[in-house]
Amino acid sequence: MSMFWTIWISVITLGSIIGCFFLLRWCLSNFTGVTEGESMGHEFDGIEEINNPLPKWWTILFYICIVWGFLYLALYPGLGAFQGFLGWKSSNQGITTLEESRDARVQAKEAGMLVQYDRELDMAAEKFDPIFAAYAAVPVEELARDPEAVKVGQRLFLQNCSQCHGSDARGQNGGFPNLTDNDWLYGGSGAKIVETLTLGRKAAMPAWFDAMGEQGIKETVAYVLSLSGREVDADLASSGKTRFAACAACHGMDGKGNQALGAPNLTDEIWLYGGSERAVTETLTYGRNGVMPSFKNTLGDDKIHVVAAYVYSLSN
Question: Tens digits of per-residue pLDDT, 193-202?
Answer without folding.
Answer: 999 999 999 9
